[in-house]
Every structure is written in structure tokens, then in C-alpha cells.
Amino acid sequence: MRPTARRASAPLADQLYATEGEIAADMTAIMVEETTGLKDDYRRQVREAGMGNRLANTWRSESYPKGGRSLNPAGYVWSNAPAIIDAFSRGAYIRPVNGAKWLWIPTRNVPARRRGGSYASSVKRSNGTRMSPEEVELHFNAELQIVIDGNKGEAFIDVVSGLSGGYRRATAGRTQGRRGMAPRKSRPVLMFTLTRGVRMPRLFDLDGPAQQRAANVARRIAAKWG
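^ that's the sequence the OP posted. Answer follows.
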């Protein structure tokens, strides 16, 4: 009877192995879909907050095992800009560091940083962002004039209007007129607002979508194999 029993159990073992493989394949596929969906949820939140594709696309995802299947698959979603995402998901309070008293918030009058340039090497340059206070003073060859009123302040700099927009250095040639051009009057223009700290608005919900996607995994697996 024993040889017969072994022969009868072989097809059952094969069937169980095949079924286990099907379950693993389904569970892995569901995990991949829900992990990708969670990444898309987070990217959508960033875009809907008006913060653009660049920050949205810092959200990335990965599913495990890579290129295989498992009864215990896993998914991982992260951002390559964690400090920004964290600040806007917690509504963090941003305050000065390293002994500074003020946060300097640039206005739209502050020029964007240029690629390359001749600013001091101690100043870190970042394309597409506004100049720092030090860079503004170097750019206009003038000192910022700071007005403090309690817990807030403003920083101005004397400039002249540019012929094609923006602002230029208040040089003697521009203020007195040169090459037949009319003189341009220098005036103080607001460059920065100063504050003791800033409360970031809470724009992102990280827990809600994560919990929903985890529930989706369990629900979908139960619906197919429960």
C-alpha cells in the first residue's frame, strides 16, 4: 500500500505547489500595483498643492522581490526631497539656525541666481532659486537697508529700474544719464522680509493614502483567495 500512497500524493503536492505559486504571483502583482498607486497618490497631492512636477517626481517606489514572486511581498515609497515633504506634511515651524535671529524671505524683486557668475566662492549657488542677501549686495554693489519693527522686518536696497525690466545698480552713469539717456532716479526696493519664524501650511497627508493602499492589498487578496 505504501508505494501506491506515494504515487497518489505526488499529483496533490504538484497541485499545492502550483496553487502556492499562483497565490504568490497574485499577491506580488497586487503589491506592485498598490505601491505604484501610493506613489501616484503622493505625486498628485504635490501637484494639487501647486508645487509642480519637479517636487512631485521626487516620489519614488520599489516593490520586492524584484522580478520574482513571493507570499510575503513588500512595497516601499520614498521621496528624494524628504525635508520639504516632511515640513509640509507636519506643518512644521521653521526658525533660524546657527545663531541667526531672522529668516530672510526673498520677494519677487530678488534676482534669480545665475549659472556660474562671479559671486564669492563661500556662497553656495543653486540655479533657479533667488539670490541670498549676500549675493544681492554683491549683485547691486550696495548694502541692504534693514528696518525692524518688533518681530518682523524688511530689507531694502537702492537701485534703478532696468530699461528692459527688473532692477540695475544705481551707478553714477545711470543716475546722471549717459550716452544721451535720461537719468534714472535711484530708489529703495524691498528685497527681503524678515521674520522670527514661519509656520509651514500642512499640505500633504501621508498616513491616509498609505493606510488606504494597505487596506486595498488585504481586500484584493481576500476577494480572490478568501
